[in-house]
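User: Let's play a game. I give you a shape written as tokens, and you guess the letters that built it. Ready? Here's round one.
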């Protein structure tokens, strides 16, 4: 049966799939958060709150960092017992990222959801302490040399997902997919960023994985 090999070198996830007997390649998990921790991720927070692993949609993972005036109320983890989510008790920018070294052609797949307060806005910055509203959740591929909070065109390789001013303030868990074939043989940085300065924006993700293409 297929063997999926994982090696971690200086925080970079190196992915490879070994096939036997002509069987179809299997999905390669990046993180389903079933470890109960954010192992392998780097988190950068400016302002209040952070990224957390949680297991109950109506129970804040860290009540001391959750706004009691807008109770924590997100979907239960859509896959398994745990998922990752942002929570906060004030304005902030919360970034979670990790590097992926791609040894072949893959489709990035994950489950995404969010629960917010107020209308989304998408200024070209991940700084919450800015003039005007900044209320957004986005997932990007960026270069490993870029500042982790940069949204400059030369730093962002591709936008995988982004909220829009026309979105409702709640998204139930749903699949997001993105073709990574263009970066075969390269190392890319997967960044998840949630920013709010108008009210809590709890953004979540689960079951992040790679689907091999054409193997």
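Assistant: Ready! My guess for every position:
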């Amino acid at each position: 049966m297929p063997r999926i090999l994982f090696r971690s070198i200086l925080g970079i996830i190196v992915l490879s799939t070994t096939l036997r007997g002509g069987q179809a390649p299997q999905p390669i998990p990046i993180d389903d958060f079933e470890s109960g921790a954010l192992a392998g991720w780097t988190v950068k927070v400016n302002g209040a709150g952070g990224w957390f692993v949680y297991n109950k949609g109506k129970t804040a993972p860290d009540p001391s960092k959750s706004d009691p005036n807008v109770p924590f109320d997100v979907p239960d983890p859509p896959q398994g017992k745990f998922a990752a989510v942002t929570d906060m008790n004030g304005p902030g920018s919360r970034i979670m990222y990790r590097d992926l070294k791609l040894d072949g052609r893959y489709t990035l797949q994950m489950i995404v959801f969010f629960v917010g307060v107020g209308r989304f806005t998408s200024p070209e910055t991940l700084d919450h302490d800015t003039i005007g509203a900044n209320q957004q959740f986005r997932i990007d591929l960026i270069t490993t040399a870029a500042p982790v909070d940069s949204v400059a065109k030369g730093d962002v390789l591709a936008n995988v997902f982004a909220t829009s001013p026309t979105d409702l303030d709640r998204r139930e868990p749903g699949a997001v997919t993105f073709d990574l074939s263009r970066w075969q043989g390269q190392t890319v940085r997967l960044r998840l960023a949630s920013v709010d300065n108008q009210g809590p924006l709890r953004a979540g993700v689960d079951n992040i994985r790679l689907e091999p293409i054409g193997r």
